[in-house]
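INFO worker-7 received task bundle
INFO bundle size: 2
INFO processing item 0
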Amino acid sequence: MLVHSKGARRAVWTVFFVLFLPIFALPLLVVVAASFASNWSGALPSGPTTAHYQDIARGDSLEALATSLVTAVAASLLALTAGTWAALAAQRLGPRARRVLDGLFVLPVAVPSVVVGLSLLVAFSRPPLLLNGTPQIVVVAHTVLVTAFAYQSVTAALARLDPAYEQSAASLGARPAYVLWRVKLPLLLPSLTAAAGLCFALSMGELSATMMIYPPDWTPLPVRIFATTDRGALFAGAALAVTLLAATLLVLLAVSRIRTKAAYR
C-alpha cells in the first residue's frame, strides 16, 4: 500500500468500506436474500424458501444458462484469437497506423451496445451473410463487443515483454513461427488467460445488444432475467441473477487457476 502511516491506512480502509458496502456489497446481498424470499413487506426480503431455485432446475432456465455459457465461451475464444492476432500485427506497424487500429478496435465499446446490435441486425439481414434469427449473430455481437478488451490486454502485455527472449531464440536459428509458438505466446499466456476471463465475464452479462438480435430459440440468461423481472417476478429474477453470478464466478476461478499455473511456468 502506498500509504505508510498507520492512521492514514485506517482512514483509507474506512473510506473503502464506507463506499464498498453500500454501493457494491449491500445490493448483491439484497439480491441473494431476495432469491431465497417469498415476500418483501419490510425493509428486507422475508419468508425463506428455495422454490425459486427448484423452478430453475425444472424449467427452461438451465437451457438459458447453457446458452449463455456457450455464447460466452465462443465469443471469448473468437475475441482472444482476433485480438491477439491484431496486437501481434500492430507491433509491425508505424505509430500512426497503430493509432488507427487502436481506434477501430475501441469503436464498438465507445458507442452504446444497442447501436452495435442494430448495426449487425442491418448488416446481416440479406444474403450472402444472412445471420438474422440464428445463434451465430448473437455470438458475433458478443465477439464484436469484447474483442477490444482482448486486444488492449494483449497489446499491454506485448509492451511489457522483454524482446531479449525473442532475439535470443532468433539468434539461435529459430524460425519466426517457432519463436511465436514456443517463445512469445507462452510468455503471453498469463495475459491471454486474463483477457479470456474478462471477455467471458463481459459476454455473460451482455444484454443491450442481445435484446436487439437474439432468436427465440437462443435466449441467453440475462435476457431471461430481464423478461422475468419485467413481468414482476422479482424473486424468481433474483434467483436467476444469482445463478448467473455463480456460474460466471466458477468459470473465472477456473481461469484464474490456469493463469496462476501459467505465471509460474
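INFO item 0 finished
INFO processing item 1
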Amino acid sequence: MKRCSRRALIRGAALAPLVAVGADALVAPARRYFASHGSYDHHTLSYDLRLAYDPAAGRLDGRARIRAVADQPLTRVELDLARLRVHAARVDGVEVRARQQQHKLLLPTPGPLTAGRAFTVEVGYGGRPGPVRTPFGPIGWDRTGDAHDGTLVAAQPLGAPSWFPCNDRPDDKAEFTFRVTVPHGHQALANGTLRERRRDGAAECWTYHHPGPMAPYLAALYTGRFDHESWTARDGSTGRTVTGRNAYPPRLARQARHDLGRQPRMLGAFTAWFGPYPFETYGAVVVDTELDQPVENQTLSLFGSNHVDGSRGWETLVAHELAHQWFGNSVSLRDWRDIWLNEGFATYCEWLWSEHIGEDTADTIARTEWRRLRASPQDLRLADPGRLRIFDDRVYTRGACTLHALRLTMGDDRFFAMLRAWHRCHRGGSAHTPAFIAHVRRCSPPATEPLLRAWLYEEPLPPLPADRHTGDTS
C-alpha cells in the first residue's frame, strides 16, 4: 500500500515496549498488533476457493476448501470471516456445526487433532460482501464503476475475511486456487496464472492458480469489463522470461498502456538489484473507480483510475508496487509492527528507479525527505511504530532513509549484495526486524549495527552519512 499524505499522518497510541533484538526473537501472539486476527493453533497449506458473483444483486456465494496442519492439539478450528454467513461446514469430511461471533468462525473438530496432523476444512458461505471496519477505515471487498457492476479487493492489513474464510495472519502463507463464476460478458481476474476459462450458458468460470506461498491479505479478485495486454520481460538475474498481464477499463486503455509501459524495464532493473523475480507472473489492474492509494496484491497490483494520466505522472507508484513483490510479498512480515520492511524498502525502490532513469538521484531524494522528517515530530520508533501508525508517512520515508544510510555506509557493491542475500535467505517466508539486523551484521562492517539501532529503535532522527561521491551531508 502507498503511504498517507504527508499532511495527514496517522497518530497512534503509546508505543509498545521494544522487542528483543536477537536474530531469533519472536513476537508473542498476545503482543501482536492485531491479535484478534488469525490463529497460531494451525498453519495453512492451501486455499481452494469456488466463488460465484452476481453483480446485479451484489451477492457472493462461495465454497472454501482449506488444507492446514495443527500446530498444537486442537478440538476446534478458528478462522476469520466477516459479514458473510456460513450455511455448511465440514472438518475432515464430517459435517460440523459452525459458530460465528464478530469476525470469527469457530468449527469444532470431529475428534481431537494432534499437533502435526494435517486436516481439511470445507465451508459453504454467502451474502453481500463489503469492506470490514478497521482502525484505518473500511478495507477489503468493494464495488467499482458507475453502475457498481465491478469489484475489487484491497485487503491490507485486515480485509481478507471480507470475502473468504482464512487464517488472517501476514505470516501464514499458502497456495491458492480461485474458480470464479461471473455472468458472460464480465471477467474475473485473480492472483497467479489463468488455468481455464469455460463458458456455461449465461455464465463463465475463470480458474486461476498461484502456488505462492501467499498471505491472505494479498489475495485479490477483480471483476468487471477490462481490456487486456500481455508483455514479457527479461529477468536481469537469471535471464528467464517473465510474462506479465495488465488489465484496465476500455475508456482508460490509451493512458494505462502508456503509464504501465515501463514495467518490463523496471522488472529487468529490479531483478538485477534484488535477485530473481520470485513468482510465475506479474501484472497490474486498473479499476474504474478512484482509490486513495494503489495496493500491492501479490502478482497483480491494483491501481485506481486516478493513478493513470497518460504522462507517467504516477510512475513512482508503479515502481513501488512492483518492488513489493520482493519486499512484502515474497519476504513477508512476521507481524505488522515490522511494516517498515515492506514500505521502507518499496519507497527506497521508488528512489532507485528515479536514479536509474536519470531523474533525481536517491541521495538527492533522501536528503530532501530527511529534512522533512527532521521537521516532523520525533516520536516514532521505526521498528515498533504503534498499531495505529503502521501507515504513517514517516514509516515509509524514514524506512527508505535507513536503507540509504546503509548504502552510504556499506558502499553500493556490499549494499546490493546484502539486499539480494536478504531476499534469497527469506524468499517464500517471513521475517522481522531483528532478523534484518542480524543479516546486515553478517554482510557489512561493524559500524552498521549502531547505525541501524539508532534509525530503527530510537525516536530522534539520526543524521545521514555523507555521500562518498559528492561529500553532501544532511
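INFO item 1 finished
INFO post-check item 1: The mean pLDDT is 92.
INFO post-check item 1: The chain is about 25% helix and 30% strand.
INFO worker-7 idle
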